[in-house]
Amino acid sequence: MSSPTRRYKSPSELSRANNNNNNNNTTHLPPPPPQNNHRNTPYLPTPTELALLTLYPTLLLFGALFSLLSPETRAAPYDTLRQAHAQDPSLAPSYFARKDNLFNVLFVKRGWAWITAAFGAFVLAHPAYRGGGNQTRRRVRAGVRWVVVTGWWVFVTQWCFGPPIIDRGFRWSGGKCEVVEEMVFGFGEGGVKEVVTAAACKASGGSWRGGHDISGHVFLLVLGSFFLVQEVGWVAARWARYLGEERCVVMHDGAVKGAGVEAERREQQEEAGVLTVLETLGFGGRLAAAVTGLCAWMLLMTAIYFHTWFEKLTGLVVALAGLYVTYILPRWIPALRSIVGLPGI
Ligand SMILES: CCCCCCCCCCCCCCCC(=O)SCCNC(=O)CCNC(=O)[C@H](O)C(C)(C)COP(=O)(O)O
Ligand SMILES: Nc1ncnc2c1ncn2[C@@H]1O[C@H](COP(=O)(O)O)[C@@H](OP(=O)(O)O)[C@H]1O
């Protein structure tokens, strides 16, 4: 996942270079490709992963700063209870400060479907997933990782043996469903209804108020985009031999080795020469890159126009927890790795 200049030579390139040297009557082999003997810790993301992960808090910080400094945003009326600017088109500071903006309605509100579609297109169509004795096993393991990440999305935002984690957190922190307009049958004292989910509260005409509302948008956009980065990045980079660094894994005997020891050799593309980034990604990878880019844009919009900074931070932390379990834990728990695998291995 780093620059093409560090690309390893394929066996055929090495043998060609070797032949040229023999023709020139020299007995020296070409210098070996630079080896990186440094082992990354299996317990933490690799340096490239860490650099990419740092972009998320950076976007959130930049958004917070922008909202503090932008005169239009500062001047626009803000509803602290709803954690959003006025939604009237004439008052909202930007099209993206409105909940009914098309990117929100068609993309984020259907976000998991987009992420699933991009992932599916990549796994079904990319040459790295075709051929080799383990083709089916690699696809099944990718599917298992999708189930784990999707399970986390379901538990946090949709359903967790009852209300989802976001709604449970909201109520644990003192939040309630309040009805301002009218008292309806079933309400407790002071217009506060015993409703346990944000969706049910909204459906009954109430407002979900008073608690800590983990940002569902930040959660979904971080979880989904980094899932695609992991699934497409490692697979495409390993296949095209763009790898400048390697994940390390703990083996059954406790030894720490590069994850490549568990990889199947055939899946790497051998002869086509240096591929461009677009060729390396293929159709599914390009769709995933577009979805990831949109996620980053909408994350920035959420950072600027919605929620408190602490609600955005908890959205980020809850997403990172799911990503750690799916992508880092298997590196140091071999039994888990044998079920979920590692992308590209
Ligand atoms: C550990 C293993 C557990 C096993 C669990 C198995 C999981 C199986 C899940 C089955 C359903 C999967 C469906 C996948 C296909 C789809 O993607 S369909 C859904 C499309 N819908 C969305 O993408 C909705 C996305 N929106 C949201 O999540 C929320 O709207 C939000 C963005 C979080 C914001 O919430 P608000 O309430 O609007 O603030
Ligand atoms: N980038 C964005 N664009 C539009 N609306 C956004 C948004 N980020 C958050 N919101 C809105 O802010 C509210 C809280 O978002 P969340 O908790 O998911 O982060 C949601 O409102 P609604 O639930 O009224 O649609 C959501 O639609």
Automatic annotation (TrEMBL):
<keyword id="KW-0444">Lipid biosynthesis</keyword>
<keyword id="KW-0812">Transmembrane</keyword>
<keyword id="KW-0443">Lipid metabolism</keyword>
<feature type="transmembrane region" description="Helical">
    <location>
        <begin position="287"/>
        <end position="306"/>
    </location>
</feature>
<feature type="compositionally biased region" description="Low complexity">
    <location>
        <begin position="18"/>
        <end position="28"/>
    </location>
</feature>
<keyword id="KW-1208">Phospholipid metabolism</keyword>
<keyword id="KW-0472">Membrane</keyword>
<keyword id="KW-0256">Endoplasmic reticulum</keyword>
<keyword id="KW-0594">Phospholipid biosynthesis</keyword>
<feature type="transmembrane region" description="Helical">
    <location>
        <begin position="313"/>
        <end position="333"/>
    </location>
</feature>
<dbReference type="InterPro" id="IPR046400">
    <property type="entry name" value="SCS3"/>
</dbReference>
<dbReference type="GO" id="GO:0140042">
    <property type="term" value="P:lipid droplet formation"/>
</dbReference>
<dbReference type="GO" id="GO:0008654">
    <property type="term" value="P:phospholipid biosynthetic process"/>
</dbReference>
<keyword id="KW-1133">Transmembrane helix</keyword>
<dbReference type="GO" id="GO:0005789">
    <property type="term" value="C:endoplasmic reticulum membrane"/>
</dbReference>
<feature type="transmembrane region" description="Helical">
    <location>
        <begin position="218"/>
        <end position="237"/>
    </location>
</feature>
<comment type="similarity">
    <text>Belongs to the FIT family. Fungal FIT2B/SCS3 subfamily.</text>
</comment>
<keyword id="KW-0378">Hydrolase</keyword>
<feature type="active site">
    <location>
        <position position="217"/>
    </location>
</feature>
<dbReference type="Pfam" id="PF10261">
    <property type="entry name" value="FIT"/>
</dbReference>
<protein>
    <recommendedName>
        <fullName>Acyl-coenzyme A diphosphatase SCS3</fullName>
        <ecNumber>3.6.1.-</ecNumber>
    </recommendedName>
</protein>
<feature type="active site">
    <location>
        <position position="307"/>
    </location>
</feature>
<feature type="transmembrane region" description="Helical">
    <location>
        <begin position="50"/>
        <end position="69"/>
    </location>
</feature>
<dbReference type="GO" id="GO:0010945">
    <property type="term" value="F:coenzyme A diphosphatase activity"/>
</dbReference>
<dbReference type="InterPro" id="IPR019388">
    <property type="entry name" value="FIT"/>
</dbReference>
<feature type="region of interest" description="Disordered">
    <location>
        <begin position="1"/>
        <end position="44"/>
    </location>
</feature>
<feature type="transmembrane region" description="Helical">
    <location>
        <begin position="111"/>
        <end position="129"/>
    </location>
</feature>
<comment type="function">
    <text>Fatty acyl-coenzyme A (CoA) diphosphatase that hydrolyzes fatty acyl-CoA to yield acyl-4'-phosphopantetheine and adenosine 3',5'-bisphosphate. Preferentially hydrolyzes unsaturated long-chain acyl-CoA substrates in the endoplasmic reticulum (ER) lumen. This catalytic activity is required for maintaining ER structure and for lipid droplets (LDs) biogenesis, which are lipid storage organelles involved in maintaining lipid and energy homeostasis. May directly bind to diacylglycerol (DAGs) and triacylglycerol, which is also important for LD biogenesis.</text>
</comment>
